TrEMBL record:
One of its GO terms (biological process) is cobalamin biosynthetic process. This is Nicotinate-nucleotide--dimethylbenzimidazole phosphoribosyltransferase. It catalyses: 5,6-dimethylbenzimidazole + nicotinate beta-D-ribonucleotide = alpha-ribazole 5'-phosphate + nicotinate + H(+). One of its GO terms (molecular function) is nicotinate-nucleotide-dimethylbenzimidazole phosphoribosyltransferase activity. The keyword Oxidoreductase does not apply. InterPro entries: Nict_dMeBzImd_PRibTrfase, Nict_dMeBzImd_PRibTrfase_bact, Nict_dMeBzImd_PRibTrfase_N, Nict_dMeBzImd_PRibTrfase_sf. CDD domains: DMB-PRT_CobT (cd02439). It comes from Hyphomonas chukchiensis. Pfam families: DBI_PRT. Signal peptide: none annotated. Catalyzes the synthesis of alpha-ribazole-5'-phosphate from nicotinate mononucleotide (NAMN) and 5,6-dimethylbenzimidazole (DMB).
Length: 337
């Protein structure tokens, strides 16, 4: 659990303020260092190791044309991840992060690869435009599988990403229902739809949203509209938080998973650090609901955990600052008058 002891909080602030710098001169890095210290319960935190887990699954609604890419791309991108060719692989290698790929429910026959972690719930969800995306048993199984993976505390930092054609549409619907907002406010271009494609997407999602009440709890929203990878990622965030691991939340889809995780397990939210502000339309509304201020704003909307990986060096540096930076007393440097 997050350390909230008043003596620890006071000692933490004193440690930050007496480093060899003007008080507050490292800006948001100081608040980030404090957050990491509270998560780990120590004045000498460490964020030196990082694991990115990418959950992949397909969505029945993809057949309706909510994405500019065909559903086959999910399976093809899983192969690309396993072969090390995706942006997430490149970023992970360049930063020294580890990566694992999880089949949460890719359409077709199970993918056979020794490096793939299989937690398949099914061969893609049902078409959420017409009825529930999954059964209650399926959503519970996805959350539980994710929770077990997230609880494996092998690294100081956990990043989570996703792959699934149609999952920005699913995320828009889930977020709209959890927040009780019109789905049009949450719907953007996803993989790059043109104006006509965006109008079609909004029309389809509006009809899907009309199937259920305006506001749903997170579990029901995931069951009605989510994907196996989104539910599994929410579970993984909960498991990681329960294990005391720092969770760096990626962009729009990961933030929707974090929104669901926070609804299902409110205490998990204290372990989440938000990586970047996505260019996807609904992300700002989700961040506002989470009272989250991301570390970066790079105009990205790829997913895969790429933004979370890019934020890790900031988390790592903030922890190192608190752990290693000299104080005025230890360095023999005169403090402010």
């Amino acid at each position: 659990m997050i350390t909230q002891d008043t003596d620890f909080t006071a000692a933490l602030q004193h440690a930050i303020d007496t480093k060899t710098k003007p008080v507050g001169s490292l800006g948001r890095m100081e608040a980030l260092a404090a957050r990491i210290a509270q998560i780990q319960g120590t004045l000498k935190p460490s964020a030196e190791t990082c694991l990115l887990t990418i959950f992949a699954a397909d969505h029945g609604m993809a057949a309706a044309g909510v994405s500019s890419y065909p559903q086959d791309v999910t399976r093809q991108m899983v192969a690309n991840f396993l072969n090390g060719g995706a942006a997430a692989n490149v970023f992970a290698r360049s930063l020294g992060a580890d990566i694992r790929i999880v089949d949460s429910g890719v359409a077709g026959e199970p993918v056979d690869h020794p490096a793939l972690v299989s937690r398949r719930i099914g061969a893609g969800t049902a078409n959420a435009l017409e009825g529930p995306a999954m059964t209650g048993a399926q959503v519970d199984a996805a959350i539980a599988a994710g929770r077990a993976l997230g609880a494996e505390k092998t690294h100081a930092v956990a990043c989570f990403g996703e792959m699934g054609i149609g999952n920005t549409s699913a995320s828009s619907l889930v977020a709209a229902k959890v927040l009780g907002l019109p789905v049009e406010d949450m719907t953007g271009r996803g993989t790059g739809l043109d104006d006509a494609g965006l109008a079609r997407k909004r029309g389809l999602l509006g009809k899907a949203a009309a199937r259920t009440e305006a506001h749903l709890d997170a579990r029901t929203a995931l069951m009605e509209y989510g994907g196996f990878e989104i539910a599994m990622m929410a579970g993984a965030m909960m498991g990681a938080a329960q294990a005391g691991t720092i969770v760096i939340v990626d962009g729009f889809i990961a933030s929707v998973a974090a929104l669901c995780a926070s609804d299902l397990m409110p205490e998990a939210a204290a372990f989440f650090i938000y990586a970047h502000r996505s260019a996807e339309a609904g992300h700002a509304r989700v961040l506002e609901a989470l009272d989250a201020e991301p570390l970066l704003d790079l105009g990205m909307r790829l997913g895969e955990g790429t933004g979370a990986l890019l934020a890790w060096p900031l988390v790592k540096a903030a922890a190192a600052m608190l752990r290693e930076m000299a104080s005025f007393d230890s360095a023999g440097v005169s403090g402010p008058a």
